[in-house]
Amino acid sequence: MKLVLFSVGGGAITPGLLTARGVVSIEEATKSVAGPTPMDTMRGIIDGWDALKGTLEDLNVHGAAEGMDAVKLHPPLPRPGKMLCCIGNYWEHDADREARPLNMFLKNPDAVIGPGDTVVLPEFTEPWIFMHEAELAIVIKGPAKNIAKEDWRDAVFGYTSMIDVTARGEGRFTWRRGSWMGKSFDTFGPLGPCITTADEIPDPNNVHVTLTCSGELRHDYNTSDMEHPVPVLIEYATMIMTMNSGDTIACGTNHEGLGALQDGDNAIIDVEGIGPMEVFVTDPLKREWERGVYMGENSTNLEAVAIAKAKAAAEE
């Protein structure tokens, strides 16, 4: 099943199921676990899933559906308690090297936006460029602590997709502009369009991921290329901290598809088993960067060129 949060005609945000017929409301069926906010309600659905599953399976097949043109989808997890993100984590056609040590960072949960929303580039004139990173994200069923990799499924409720929008440039790893800070601006965490339950994605390390930017294919990879697969990510994260229901772990990206986001762009991420999500981009400063893929064996090293141009412009 595919869980969503949606509204109709500007009304209240309520839980639903995304089906081939449209969106089926499950508001009545989930009243027993509803909370004061849509995030609390989704967390309640995850925690109460065993009791709700039968009723929701019936609604998924037989429930009355609103057409997609009549609904507004919202991020299925509007404010996760924790958003862990892998650093790198893909071989990127270089499997002859040693695997890099697994590492993660925390992304600002308030950066989350959803389908049809807009990424707003910050008004910085430093030598930065803003890029997309298309990622599979794990949705946790908690509390999960010290989960062995052999038991990883115990901690996984389902999956969603995330665009890890990132500010890149000279000095992004300094104390003032650490990697996670450049990823935590408001609107830099598009998440959605739904949560696909774990039973519909039996092997998260065999999922196709694409991202197109204004019609140009950028990311195009399979999650089988992960250096550290999903069971290892679960073990590692829960060794360090308790992961609660509705927390997420983004699995990293294949950097060979990186490219710039700029004013007027639309970006569509499509993760197999989850479906497409489109977001838009606006830049108050109307900056421009070279189009195309910036990194990897098929790139033309556009990132270095773009950063140099941005630096020169900032120094004028």
- Classify the helix fraction into a percent range: 10-25%
> Mean of the pLDDT scores?
91
Instruction: Give the total of beta strands.
Output: 19
Main beta sheet: strand number and arrangement?
12 strands, mixed
* Rg, Å, rounded: 19 Å
Distance between the termini: 54 Å
Assembly type of the chains comes to: single chain
Shape: globular
Name of the CATH homologous superfamily of the largest domain: Fumarylacetoacetase-like, C-terminal domain
Class from helix and strand fractions: alpha+beta
Please give the domain count: 2
Instruction: Examine the coordinates and then state which fold CATH places here, giving the name of the CATH topology of the largest domain.
Output: Fumarylacetoacetate hydrolase, domain 2
What is the CATH architecture assignment of the largest domain? Alpha-Beta Complex
Extract low-pLDDT stretches.
172-176
Give the CATH level 1 class of the largest domain. Answer: Alpha Beta
